[in-house]
Each structure stands twice: as C-alpha cells, then as structure tokens.
UniProtKB/TrEMBL annotation:
Catalyzes two steps in the biosynthesis of coenzyme A. In the first step cysteine is conjugated to 4'-phosphopantothenate to form 4-phosphopantothenoylcysteine, in the latter compound is decarboxylated to form 4'-phosphopantotheine. Its cofactor is FMN; Mg(2+). Signal peptide: none annotated. It catalyses: N-[(R)-4-phosphopantothenoyl]-L-cysteine + H(+) = (R)-4'-phosphopantetheine + CO2; (R)-4'-phosphopantothenate + L-cysteine + CTP = N-[(R)-4-phosphopantothenoyl]-L-cysteine + CMP + diphosphate + H(+). In the C-terminal section; belongs to the PPC synthetase family. In the N-terminal section; belongs to the HFCD (homo-oligomeric flavin containing Cys decarboxylase) superfamily. This is Coenzyme A biosynthesis bifunctional protein CoaBC. GO terms for cellular component: phosphopantothenoylcysteine decarboxylase complex. Residues 15-227 are annotated as: Phosphopantothenate--cysteine ligase. The gene is coaBC. One of its GO terms (biological process) is pantothenate catabolic process. The chain holds residues 176 to 402 of 402 of the full protein. CTP binds at residues 104, 114, 148, 162, 166. Pathway: Cofactor biosynthesis; coenzyme A biosynthesis; CoA from (R)-pantothenate: step 2/5; Cofactor biosynthesis; coenzyme A biosynthesis; CoA from (R)-pantothenate: step 3/5. Binds 1 FMN per subunit.
Amino acid sequence: VKELTLSKDLKGTKILITAGPTRETIDPVRYITNRSTGKMGYAIATQAVKRGALVTLISGPTNIDKPLGLSKFIKVESANQMYNAVMENIKDQHVIIKSAAVADYKPKKVSDRKIKKTDDNLFIELERNNDILKEIGQIKQDKILVGFAAETHDLIENAKQKIKKKNLDFIVANDLLQEGAGFGVDTNIVKIIDKNGDIHPFPKMSKEDIANVILDKIKLLLENKHL
Ligand code: CTP
Ligand code: CA
C-alpha cells in the first residue's frame, strides 16, 4: 500500500549510488574485505527507482538481488574497480550517494601464487586506495554529494570532518556500536549532518525508511537549487 502512495517525486533525477563492501586481493584464494552487506545502498537504490529516479548502482560483492528498474548496474570487486566505474559514470549525474564501505588499503603486491605458510608471523604490506568520495568532492560542480560515516567513536566530530574534507552536502552518520545499527541488520540508527553543521538524529528505523529520509533531503536540496 505504501508503494502505491509514493509519488514519482524524483522523476528524471539521475542518481549514482555505490553499495556494499570491496574486496582487495592478497593471492588467488584470499582477500581483505569488511562487514558491509550492501543493504543500505540497495535500499536507497530501490526507493529511488520507485520515486522515479534514473539510478546507476555500482556494487561491490553482495548477496542481494539486483533491484528492478535500474538504469545501470555495475558489479565490481576492488576499490580500484569501484573508482573506475564511478569516474566513468559520473558525468551526467545530479546526485551521488556513496554508501559503499570502500577498503582504505589494498595489498601492495598481489601474489599470483597461493602464499604458503612458513614463519610464525606473516607481514602483508598495504597501501592506500584512492578516496573516491574525496575526489568526487573536488570535481562535483553543482552535483549533490552524500557520504556515509560508520564510526565506533567520536561520531559527530568525525562525520563533520568528513563533510569538510570531502566537500559533501550532507553525511549519514551511524554509530556501529549501537544495537540495531550498522552492518548486516535491516535497521539502522543514523544522524544526518548538514554541511552547515545542523544535526538531525533519527530513531531506530528500517533501512527502507532511512533511504526515503535521505531521498527527501536530496529532493529539498534539488528544489532549492532550482529556485
Ligand atoms: N570512501 C570512498 N573511498 C574510499 C574510502 C571511503 O569513497 N577509499 C567514502 C565512503 O563510501 C563513505 C565515506 O567515504 O561514504 C566515508 O567513509 P569512511 O570509511 O567512514 O571514512 P574515511 O574517509 O575512509 O576515514 P576513516 O576510515 O579513517 O574513518
Ligand atoms: Ca574508511
């Protein structure tokens, strides 16, 4: 019933969404990843399609079915692949929502043979990945840019710093240590923080409802742009 009452209030808006974790290869059988399942990003993509947006979803590995009605769906594994897919598809977008949990580091050398166990300790040297969101922030022009911040401590302060550093319009911050928030669950507890520092806390909500709150906020920003 709820679906029928949703208006197509984002009709024609081009939105690029990233979702899920990334995988950074160590050797042919191993990789580094994180606990992201993609639920939040896929919920945003699904709701955006229902509201009439033209959605490009760039996804790391997840177990979720592809949402119906996407304009484009690109599956990637590594942060580098996600970076390339985002940059190739960014040009005509009105809105970018970066909900993916991108690996900050990747192994400096990828072994083409399985690493055998030898000594008691193994050291794998890691190097930084590109910060996709930060780079978009430098070239965003009038696009609306939305980031996520998953934190275990100093949530507000860290999130505010990310808004500045990455030139975001707003950030969706969630405290990973609260029950019913963060990775793997169907609910989340978020605070939306504006670039001017305003903080809007929300109670525990379904990821679907949070997706619509985020899209409502984007709609308002788009309307203000066109005044
Ligand atoms: N992000 C990104 N590219 C990266 C790392 C992060 O685009 N290489 C994006 C994420 O998709 C998210 C936002 O940046 O929208 C914040 O990610 P987060 O991991 O919370 O912040 P970092 O800037 O990576 O800082 P740190 O992990 O040290 O807290
Ligand atoms: Ca990070």
